[in-house]
């Protein structure tokens, strides 16, 4: 059976919910594990066909634990592994700040840099990086985001 790993970080549980929804949607076709980034061991990467990595956006970037884990992966460790990246983020429409949109435009979110990091280690990106929205810093997720995550995962499944 094909082996899939969904790696996530989460402070308030929102990214975890998205990761679990993605894992559920991928489950029927592959052997899926959904693990918090701190729990991933080298053996989890052995024989992997698909790796999905997600993080809450923290200061326009992935969480420190996610960045540290990605950085520690050997240069060619994802050679031949299909890959996808996602994040959770606050919708700009919910933020009452004039400067934040400028910073977001300049610095972005977590998913893109995660995707770049996966590709740098040999991962083959099968879908554009995706962001899922929370209503406020600690959540909850915006309505429909779990369903959107499942649909995103179905697209991965179709391409992987
Ligand atoms: C210190 C801190 C920095 C954050 N920075 C950003 C940011 O740059 N952009 C953004 O969209 N959301 C930002 N957020 C909101 C997080 O993305 C939000 O808390 C996260 O999606 C919740 O996911 P979690 O429940 O899995 O931790 C920040 C939150 C905190 C607490």
Name its key features.
single chain, alpha/beta, 6-stranded parallel β-sheet, 6 helices, 6 strands, binds flavin mononucleotide
Outline:
The protein contains six helices and six strands; from the N terminus they run E-H-E-H-E-H-E-H-H-E-E-H. By secondary structure, it is an alpha/beta fold.
What summary fits the major beta sheet?
6 strands, parallel
List unreliable stretches of 5+ residues.
none
Task: Summarize model confidence as the mean pLDDT.
Answer: 95
Bulk shape: globular
**Would you report the number of β strands?**
6
User: Could you spell the SSE succession in H and E letters?
Assistant: EHEHEHEHHEEH
Task: Walk me through what this model shows.
The chain has 160 residues and is of the alpha/beta class. The chain contains 6 helices and 6 strands, in the order βαβαβαβααββα. It has helices at residues 14-26, 42-45, 64-72, 100-107, 111-120, 145-159, and strands at 3-8, 31-36, 50-56, 82-90, 124-125, 130-134. Strands 1, 2, 3, 4, 5 and 6 form a 6-stranded parallel sheet that branches. The mean pLDDT is 95. The structure holds flavin mononucleotide. Flavin mononucleotide is lined by residues 10-16, 56-60, 88-90, 109, 134, 137, 139.
Topology:
Elements (H helix, E strand, L loop, with lengths): L2 E6 L5 H13 L4 E6 L5 H4 L4 E7 L7 H9 L9 E9 L9 H8 L3 H10 L3 E2 L4 E5 L10 H15 L1
Parallel strand pairs: 1-2, 1-3, 3-4, 4-5, 4-6
Bound molecules: flavin mononucleotide.
